[in-house]
Amino acid sequence: MAWSMAQLGWVVGPVVIIGFSVVTYYTSLLLADCYRSPDPVTGQRNYTYKDAVKANLGKFLHLVSVNNIVGILSNLGKFLHLVSMNNIVGILLLACLVLTAVQAFFSFKIPASELMH
């Protein structure tokens, strides 16, 4: 995150951070309004995100939303599995290269007379 902001520079970086904070503030207000809905004073309390979606969107759109979230999480899990496998392969290749370099270093014989110069 710090590297990303550094690439944006001193002008655009803080503007992007402020923009993200405005979006976060707005979505937190929306979520706070969904806590008691449809009436903020006497409405039923929605303790979970699923309850808030069901109270505000209805039963059909609630099922569509749950199906969408399950699909997104499933694809995210597949992506993370793929990325972690690529990282494991990369780590194994790096370890092989390091071990080869260490073996080459210790198998290289330098005469003692050359070490003194």
The domain count comes to 1
- Uncertain regions spanning at least 5 consecutive residues: none
The radius of gyration computed from the alpha-carbon positions, rounded to a whole number of angstroms, is 28 Å
Main sheet overview: 2 strands, antiparallel
Instruction: Indicate the mean pLDDT.
Output: 76
- The helix-strand sequence is HEEHHH
User: What count of helical segments does DSSP give?
Assistant: 4
* Class by SSE composition: mainly alpha
Strand content: under 5%
Shape: elongated
* Separation of the first and last Cα atoms: 49 Å
Number of strands: 2
Helix content: over 70%
Q: Give me the side-by-side strand order of the main sheet.
A: 1-2
Brief summary of the model shown:
The chain has 117 residues and is mainly alpha-helical.
Textual characterization of the structure:
The two termini are 49 Å apart. Strands 1-2 form a two-stranded antiparallel ribbon. It has helices spanning 2-35, 49-57, 59-107, 112-115; strands spanning 36-37, 44-45. α2 (49-57) runs antiparallel to α3 (59-107). It is mainly alpha-helical. It has one domain (2-115).
